[in-house]
Amino acid sequence: AQRVTQPEKLLSVFKGAPVELKCNYSYSGSPELFWYVQYSRQRLQLLLRHISRESIKGFTADLNKGETSFHLKKPFAQEEDSAMYYCALQNPGSARQLTFGSGTQLTVLP
Amino acid sequence: DADVTQTPRNRITKTGKRIMLECSQTKGHDRMYWYRQDPGLGLRLIYYSFDVKDINKGEISDGYSVSRQAQAKFSLSLESAIPNQTALYFCATSDLQTSGSNEQFFGPGTRLTVL
Question: Cβ separation of B40 and A97 shorter than 8 Å?
């Protein structure tokens, strides 16, 4: 069965410091992975997906199949990055539903 | 995103009561989902629906039922609520045909407390 692990429930960094939110997955095939974000008093929304190889709000995430990881990184954290971040793995079968990790609450301190 | 709405936003009920949570969307998406969110557990899928005639169980469907009354409406029912169903419930939609890799769009959530 597929599984997504986010080992850090809470993560605090200072403004301007680099930040890395860890995500590991277990899946035997070729995964499709996503990062979703929930800012305070806002809805959960897609941040980025690995197939797009995009950088959103300065965040990037690289799929490492050898380490089965999809860590989210940003070189210089901003206070507005404070939010709950969820890593998600898409079931590649016909159902295509998402399996979410338990989430990491990021706090960027001034 | 006001395109996905949930009612009620908050509900307190007693053990044994029947509860219905409703979700409506104006995005024209064919797929709809119900999740529950518990602290430390993230989001877990309860049920999902590909269209009006296609309902599927998710990871934690026991104690829940759903109804897809129309493409735009997907309701979640707790036939006899119990305290461990206290959680934040999210509805989501997606449209695989246009979004490709199943980006999901979430409602604001319903906070349910079962006493």
Answer: no
Q: Which bin fits B102, alpha (ψ -120 to 50), beta or left (φ > 0)?
A: left
Measured in degrees and rounded to the nearest 5, phi and psi for residue A20 equal -135, 120
Q: What are phi and psi of A11, to 5 degrees?
A: -145, 130
The answer to whether the CB of A43 falls within 8 A of the CB of A30 is no
Per-residue CA distances from A63 to A59, A87, B104 (Å): 14, 12, 20
Residue B28 CB contacts under 8 Å (≥ 6 apart), including other chains: B71, B95
Shortest alpha-carbon distance between residue A17 and chain B (Å): 26
Distance CA B112, CA B9 (A): 8
Angle at B52 between CA B46 and CA B56, to 5 degrees: 30
Minimal-distance CA residue of chain B relative to A86: B42
Would you say B112 and B11 are in contact if contact means Cβ atoms under 8 Å apart?
A: yes
CA A2-A101-B87 angle, 5° bins: 115
- pLDDT tens-place string over residues B20-32: 999 999 999 989 9
End-to-end CA distance of chain A: 41
Mutation target among A32, A97, A100 for the B interface, most CBs of B within 10 A:
A97
pLDDT in tens, B43-73: 999 999 988 889 999 989 999 999 999 999 9
